[in-house]
């Protein structure tokens, strides 16, 4: 009884702080992410499942730092970078962030179009209506309503768990290959592995999670609960990736079907795994795309405004925060327009460009994060411990190396 | 830059400069600098030709409204250690170079450092009640004194520091015949946050003086925009009443952080100043800390809050205001009128008088208007309204709202099963509960 009471108290506090970590991690599985995991599953079967656990670890490592910075300082990452490293660096960083986020938004609207077409809806009305609904939600909503909507959106990822199970995977083989690393040592697989890590740990996530921790006003003494939010988010997202790869591995890979993106995957699943499995997969893609397209423009506008000292926040009216809403509107509608106008062939160079900036930006941001989280004047008693530092620097160097490698390989491809 | 320079000239001319400056200081040429232009420029000794360091930071003293520079921080050419010099060592300063004398005098402790605490950081603009991010600092150099004049917050400061000012100006001039204007705030209205990063470094007295006049909603807005440390510093520096007003206005999330980071004794004082319903709302989500704070609250306020917390938030009992004007049936109009100043002291519902018998059973209600109109010798019993609409502590707020809609009360009395008066539910506390649904 006593123990149950204690648990209830813990759960009550957890319920107050939960949100930023789980939401950020789930948006991570946006259209681009799903595409990468699908292709990985279709092309390499179960053999790349082992990559997910270490990726999850790196994700926790990086996101935990943001979470900590947000709770301890009450400031967003872009504000901290501006204060610690000055205007010049911040400005160019924000330009890079703008373009890589725009690329992600385009990918999300393209994903929305692809999934809508699987259900027989035409892209020319789904994308504009979707964009307008998202725009309206943010302009008229408040942080609380939006968080609630996003929370519900997270639940839709269950679609992947079901479709992954329905695809009838070889559980034994999958379990074995999830733990024991497989054929990693050729250029093709390496490129895929790098793609998985690169798409799972993206620069916007650090800005977004820290900003929402700040906006939620999580008190320092609840920090450890907030850390669980981050860890839970990363684990949930890894499980979802796992099932996406599983679904594609069990059907497409077994039948030797080659795909290029998530829309292909959903189409190809139909003959291989049945109508319902494919439908659920497409539904998951649709909600993920909407989810990503909703959050990325907010995140872009927030980060830039915070860095430049402009009024920001969904709780403000247009007249109070014009820069914020203009930036938000530009990213959202430019993304939707580009996804509509561009043919599949045109989208590929856009995506490559976005991934290259992504890859170049991430090491820089991680380096700044490590510097800030080691700075006593900013973090007080919450600087990185010695062991954490060693692990974090190692993890950061690996992540940085991987993302730079990804840039090089993308350019070579 | 022209407007800024004119503003600065006026500032100096009206004697805002250091009091110690000689009367004829206006005769000295005034030179206008942007702080960002001076940064990392060479510094040399007067008897040497090669610079030995670059300028890293300038420290100021906030004794006067427009601070004067008191110290320099240098980055020596070799090695990482930064060197401090008192301002008295400066012989001349310009964008090209700063020339200093050799001195053994130690640098004084500065109240703030412009690069560390101001440039690129957030400051509070007391006149505009907003939090600003500083893009540049305007300095005026005259008679070998350096005075902090404005902080620049506009786009132009950003462009200048990025070295795009000329190009962008040329473009806007050519395209729209428009020049981007300076946006700056005079230093007199600026509060540097956490100067020195020293614990307790905030100048509490000066700060709170200037902040009490700001509307609580604006104060709340500022609190929400600041980082944790600055926010708590600002909140702690406010007088208890102002802090209570501001706390009512911030969002529940920030209420929680402000209260849970605060010192329990002070938080208890602040909550006592708030209507007990709001105080209970703040404490409701706080978990085990709530009790700790309630224990430090003064007896009556503590028991009121305790009572409210015992009820569900969505019931009348959860938003009860037990601070009302109470009277006995036998009291005369004259005696109540005479006691009105004391009776209304700390009461939100000041225009309704609740008449209770010796068992605190509610007998009637009297409005202020009726009280004024009645003859002074009349007893309350003879003029009070006896047909009463009441609710119980368990009544759901939805139903209370219906009563309000039907009768247009300002407050509805709450009685228990025996008719004993518990307090009232105010119109605004029901509205606050309903407002949550307006967003959806």
Any chance you could write out the topology, listing elements then pairs?
The complex is a heterodimer of chains A (413) and B (440).
Chain A: H1 2-17, H2 20-28, H3 31-44, H4 52-73, H5 77-85, H6 87-118, H7 123-140, H8 143-155, H9 158-166, H10 171-179, H11 187-200, H12 203-216, H13 223-253, H14 262-273, H15 275-308, H16 322-341, H17 344-373, H18 376-379, H19 386-412
Helix pairs in contact in A: 1-13, 2-8, 2-12, 2-13, 3-11, 3-13, 4-12, 4-13, 4-17, 5-6, 5-15, 6-7, 6-14, 6-15, 6-16, 6-17, 7-15, 7-16, 9-13, 9-15, 11-19, 12-15, 13-14, 14-15, 15-16, 17-19
Chain B: H1 2-13, E1 31-34, H2 35-38, E2 42-45, E3 53-61, E4 68-76, E5 83-86, E6 90-93, E7 98-100, E8 112-113, H3 114-118, E9 122-125, E10 130-133, E11 136-142, E12 145-152, H4 155-161, H5 165-176, E13 184-186, E14 190-192, H6 204-211, H7 216-225, H8 228-237, H9 240-249, H10 252-261, H11 264-273, H12 276-284, H13 289-296, H14 299-310, E15 324-327, H15 333-343, E16 349-356, E17 362-367, H16 368-373, H17 380-383, H18 397-407, E18 411-415, E19 421-426, H19 427-435
Parallel strand pairs in B: 2-7, 15-16
Antiparallel strand pairs in B: 1-11, 2-3, 3-4, 3-8, 4-5, 6-7, 9-10, 9-14, 11-12, 12-13, 16-17, 18-19
Q: Helical region count of chain B?
A: 19
CATH class of chain A: Mainly Alpha
- State the largest interface: A-B, 32 and 31 residues
- Tally of extended strands of chain A? 0
Number of helices of chain A: 19
CATH architecture of chain A: Up-down Bundle
Structural class of chain A: mainly alpha
Question: Can you tell me the number of structural domains of chain B?
Answer: 3
Account of the 3D structure:
The complex is a heterodimer of chains A (413) and B (440). With 413 residues, chain A is mostly helical. Chain A is 82% helix and 0% strand. Chain A has helices spanning 2-17, 20-28, 31-44, 52-73, 77-85, 87-118, 123-140, 143-155, 158-166, 171-179, 187-200, 203-216, 223-253, 262-273, 275-308, 322-341, 344-373, 376-379, 386-412. In chain A, helix 2 packs across helix 8 (143-155), helix 6 packs across helix 17 and helix 14 (262-273) runs antiparallel to helix 15. The model of chain A has no long low-confidence stretch (mean pLDDT 81). Chain B is built from 19 helices and 19 strands. Chain B has helices at residues 2-13, 35-38, 114-118, 155-161, 165-176, 204-211, 216-225, 228-237, 240-249, 252-261, 264-273, 276-284, 289-296, 299-310, 333-343, 368-373, 380-383, 397-407, 427-435; strands at 31-34, 42-45, 53-61, 68-76, 83-86, 90-93, 98-100, 112-113, 122-125, 130-133, 136-142, 145-152, 184-186, 190-192, 324-327, 349-356, 362-367, 411-415, 421-426. In chain B, strands 2, 3, 4, 5, 6, 7 and 8 form a seven-stranded mixed sheet that branches. A four-stranded antiparallel sheet of chain B has the order 1-11-12-13. Chain B has a three-stranded antiparallel sheet with strand order 10-9-14, covered by helices on one side. The interface between A and B is medium-sized, with 32 and 31 residues.
């Amino acid at each position: 009884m006593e123990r149950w009471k204690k648990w209830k108290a813990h759960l009550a506090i957890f319920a107050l702080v939960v949100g930023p970590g789980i939401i950020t991690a789930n948006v991570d599985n946006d259209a681009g992410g799903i595409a990468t995991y699908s292709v990985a599953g279709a092309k390499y079967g179960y053999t790349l499942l082992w990559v997910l656990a270490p990726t999850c670890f790196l994700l926790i490592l990086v996101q935990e730092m943001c979470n900590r910075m947000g709770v301890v300082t009450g400031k967003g990452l872009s504000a901290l970078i501006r204060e610690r490293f000055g205007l010049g660096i911040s400005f160019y960083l924000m330009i890079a962030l703008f373009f890589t986020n725009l690329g992600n938004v385009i990918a999300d609207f393209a994903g929305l179009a692809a999934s809508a077409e699987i259900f027989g809806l035409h892209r020319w009305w789904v994308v504009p209506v979707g964009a307008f609904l998202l725009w309206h939600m943010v302009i008229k909503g408040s942080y609380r309503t939006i968080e609630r909507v996003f929370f519900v959106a997270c639940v839709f990822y269950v679609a992947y768990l079901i479709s992954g199970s329905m695809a009838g995977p070889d559980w034994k083989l999958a379990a074995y290959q999830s733990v024991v690393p497989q054929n990693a040592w050729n250029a093709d697989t390496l490129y895929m592995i790098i793609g998985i890590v690169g798409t799972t740990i993206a620069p916007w996530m650090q800005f977004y999670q820290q900003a929402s921790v700040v906006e939620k006003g999580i008190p320092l003494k609840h920090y450890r609960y907030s850390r669980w939010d981050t860890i839970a988010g990363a684990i949930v997202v890894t499980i979802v990736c796992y099932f996406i790869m599983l679904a594609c591995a069990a059907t497409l890979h077994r039948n030797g079907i080659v795909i290029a993106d998530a829309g292909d995957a959903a189409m190809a699943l139909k003959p291989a795994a049945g109508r319902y499995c494919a439908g659920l997969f497409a539904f998951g893609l649709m909600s993920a795309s909407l989810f990503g397209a909703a959050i990325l423009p907010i995140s872009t506008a927030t980060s830039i405004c915070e860095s430049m000292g402009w009024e920001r926040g969904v709780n403000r009216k247009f007249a109070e925060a014009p820069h914020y809403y203009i930036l938000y509107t530009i990213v959202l509608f430019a993304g939707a327009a580009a996804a509509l106008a561009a043919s599949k062939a045109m989208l590929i160079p856009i995506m490559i460009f976005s991934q290259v900036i992504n890859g170049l930006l991430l090491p820089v941001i991680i380096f700044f994060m490590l510097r800030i989280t080691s700075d006593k004047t900013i973090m007080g008693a919450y600087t990185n411990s010695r062991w954490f530092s060693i692990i974090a620097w190692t993890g950061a160097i690996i992540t940085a190396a991987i993302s730079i490698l990804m840039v090089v390989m993308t350019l070579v491809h | 830059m022209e407007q800024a320079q004119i503003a600065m000239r006026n500032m100096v001319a009206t004697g805002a400069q250091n009091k110690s400056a000689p009367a004829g200081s206006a005769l000295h040429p005034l030179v206008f600098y942007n702080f960002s232009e001076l940064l990392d420029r060479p510094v040399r000794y007067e008897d040497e030709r090669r610079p030995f360091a670059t300028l890293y930071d300038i420290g100021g003293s906030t004794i006067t409204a427009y601070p004067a520079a008191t110290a320099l921080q240098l980055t020596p050419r070799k090695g990482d250690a930064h060197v401090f010099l008192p301002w008295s060592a400066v012989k001349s300063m310009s964008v090209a170079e700063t020339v200093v004398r050799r001195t053994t005098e130690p640098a004084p402790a500065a109240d703030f450092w412009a690069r560390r605490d101001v440039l690129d950081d957030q400051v509070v603009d007391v006149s505009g009640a907003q939090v600003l991010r500083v893009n540049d600092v305007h300095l005026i150099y005259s008679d070998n004194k350096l005075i902090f004049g404005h902080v620049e917050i506009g786009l132009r400061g950003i462009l200048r520091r990025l070295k795009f000012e000329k190009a962008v100006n040329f473009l806007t001039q050519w395209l729209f015949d428009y020049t981007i204007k300076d946006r700056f705030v005079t230093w007199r209205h600026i509060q540097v946050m956490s100067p020195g990063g020293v614990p307790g470094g905030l100048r509490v007295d000066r700060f709170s003086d200037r902040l009490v006049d700001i509307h609580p909603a604006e104060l709340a807005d500022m609190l929400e925009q600041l980082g944790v440390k600055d926010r708590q510093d600002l909140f702690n520096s406010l007088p208890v009443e102002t802090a209570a007003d501001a706390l009512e206005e911030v969002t529940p999330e920030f209420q929680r952080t402000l209260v849970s980071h605060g010192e329990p004794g002070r938080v208890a004082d602040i909550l006592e100043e708030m209507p007990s319903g709001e105080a209970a709302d703040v404490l409701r989500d706080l978990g085990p800390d709530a009790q700790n704070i309630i224990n430090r609250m003064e007896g009556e306020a503590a028991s009121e809050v305790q009572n409210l917390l015992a009820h569900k938030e969505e019931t009348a009992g959860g938003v009860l205001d037990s601070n009302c004007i109470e009277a006995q049936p036998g009291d005369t109009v004259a005696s109540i009128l005479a006691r009105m100043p004391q009776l209304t002291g700390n009461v939100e519902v000041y225009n309704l008088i609740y008449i209770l018998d010796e068992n605190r059973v509610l007998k009637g209600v009297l409005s202020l208007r009726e009280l004024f109109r009645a003859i002074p010798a009349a007893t309350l019993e003879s003029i009070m309204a006896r047909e009463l609409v009441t609710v119980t502590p368990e009544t759901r707020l939805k139903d209370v709202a219906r009563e309000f809609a039907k009768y247009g009360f300002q407050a509805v009395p709450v009685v228990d099963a025996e008719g004993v008066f518990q307090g009232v539910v105010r119109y605004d506390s029901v509205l606050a509960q309903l407002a949550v649904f307006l967003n959806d």
